[in-house]
Design brief:
The protein has one domain: Tetracycline Repressor, domain 2 (Orthogonal Bundle), CATH 1.10.357. Helix 4 crosses helix 5 and helix 4 runs parallel beside helix 6. The protein starts with 9 loop residues before the first helix and ends in a 5-residue tail after the last helix. By secondary structure, the chain is mainly alpha-helical. Helices cover 66% and strands 0% of the residues.
């Protein structure tokens, strides 16, 4: 007897439909009503999986960050738990400058009432990648933080569409940031 094909959970299907809808709309805002329409379920059906807008947005944030972590993990040599800060930030920098980003990545900023909870969640999920240990010597700490801010700025410019780094400049910017990590200011 053959096993039935694996079907994704209804929860995952809903989240993917909502993210697709948000990408089409070009804005990271969502309501329970628009999410239900995007997922082609009733509002009650949506609320079975996500009882509140906060629960829905939190799940969307996690879905977006899950995708980012898969991409970041592919750029990291080894596992995250044992990776030094330089390796983690190099993966983040490379990801930020070589990946296409869109407004759906700003979902944590989409609702002013949920802004604090969602930015806290975003920070919680990404801090293992971005944390620079307090005992890192100051010159290296400064270089790591500068590279992180270069990556953050490029990511945010792309995701928001506000003056993104031109494609022709990305490779040069990546090279400059990697040299900065090595202690070469050029």
């Amino acid at each position: 007897m053959s096993r039935p094909a694996h079907r994704p959970s209804q929860r995952a299907v809903i989240l993917d439909a909502v993210l697709t809808h948000l990408r089409r709309e070009g804005a990271p805002t969502v309501s329970l009503e628009t999410a239900a329409r995007a997922a082609r379920v009733s509002k009650a059906g949506l609320m079975y999986h996500f009882a509140t807008k906060e629960a829905l947005v939190r799940a969307l944030v996690d879905r977006v960050v899950d995708g980012h972590e898969r991409q970041l993990g592919a750029l990291l040599d080894g596992d995250l738990e044992h990776a030094p800060a330089r390796a983690r930030l190099t993966a983040y920098l490379t990801w930020a400058l070589t990946t296409e980003h869109d407004t759906v990545e700003l979902i944590m900023l989409g609702d002013p009432k949920l802004w604090e909870q969602m930015t806290d969640r975003w920070s919680e999920r990404l801090s293992p990648w971005l944390d620079v240990p307090a005992d890192t010597p100051q010159p290296e700490r400064s270089r790591l933080q500068a590279v992180r801010l270069i990556a953050d700025g490029s990511w945010f410019a792309d995701a928001s569409g506000f003056l993104p780094v031109p494609a022709d400049d990305r490779r040069a910017l990546l090279g400059s940031a990697l040299r900065l990590l090595d202690g070469d200011p050029a």
